[in-house]
Amino acid sequence: MLPSKLVAVVGSNGAGKSSALRAIMGLVPATGDVRLGPAEILRAPTWRRAELGVGFVPEGRGTFAPLSVRENLLLGGYTVDARTRAKRLEEIFGLFPVLQERFDQGASLLSGGEPQMLAVGRALMCSPKALILDEPSMGLAPAITRLLFAT
User: Fold this and answer.
1) Which pLDDT value is given to residue 76?
2) What is the total count of domains within the chain?
3) What pLDDT score was predicted for residue 45?
4) Alpha carbon distances (Å) from 123 to 12, 30, 133
5) Proportion of the chain above pLDDT 70, given as a percent
6) DSSP secondary structure string, 6-54?
7) Which structural domain range is residue 123 located in?
8) Residue 99's pLDDT band (boundaries 50, 70, 90)?
9) Helical packing angle, 114-124 and 69-76, nearest 10°
10) What is the pLDDT of residue 91?
11) DSSP letters for 71-124
12) Domain CATH for 57
């Protein structure tokens, strides 16, 4: 699960960082060329980009509050088979043990950095080739930020 490359998009507020990331995911219109390995993904629907291996954690966590932690995580693994989903769950519990403790709890009941852990865990469920994190440390305590960046 360790990345081979880390890329940061840096700029002032309003410079278009989040818009660029949302465009890569197909959430806003874009022109140009975006590739993931040999695959050109810019014209693919958002769901196909996830199938091709792009994981996304939007700004503001983006968890599905009415669903449980379990349901949120399983939604992230919809593109992989049951064996891979089970393996990924174990890996995510190794990274974020609190998610295992809260597995059957509603996502809306998570506090502190737990929703961000859930959002990252959900994005990791599909075994992404590329993981896009928009403002991953916003509003988090320093200890949680260090945990997320170490992950």
Assistant:
1) 92
2) 1
3) 93
4) 26, 22, 9
5) 97
6) -------TTSSHHHHHHHHTTSS---S--EETTEE-TTS-HHHHHHHTE
7) 17-150
8) very high
9) 30
10) 94
11) HHHHHHTTTS-HHHHHHHHHHHHHH-HHHHHTTTSBGGG--TTHHHHHHHHHHH
12) 3.40.50.300
